[in-house]
Amino acid sequence: MDTTLLDDAAVSAPLFENRDWRLHADGLEHRQTGYFIDRGTLNARRPDGYWEWPLHLSEKSWCGVRSFREAFTAALDMFGIAPDRKLTLSFALGFGTRVGGAAPDAFVPLADLVRVRAPARRSRFAPRPLVAASA
User: Fold this and answer.
1) Is residue 56, in this structure, part of any structural domain at all?
2) For residue 68, what are the domain limits?
3) Do residues 96 and 113 lie in contact, with contact meaning Cβ atoms separated by under 8 Å?
């Protein structure tokens, strides 16, 4: 039986790449930072069913949503991992929406997109509304 050894270049050749990410047989790598997502953890979910990586990477100022989404979905497709509705919701929850702005991939913290209104303070001594007596 003949055995063919692949050279290092063939083994390390990316399966997919875009401007920010490279997909290798063992996982997904951010080209600039070297941040690596192991193939075995790509489908990691939180207890509520949301996907871990879109939520986690939305916290990174260097992660652009468009290139990450493209690379992440390519990885899921390449490794036979089926996306579901919670994946879309995970991206929306983590990255929010990009409406206008200087750059479509500009980092916007979720806290800047969602502003919680403080509850109205009511004094203990505020007058209560009068209820009209029925005749």
Assistant:
1) yes
2) 14-97
3) yes
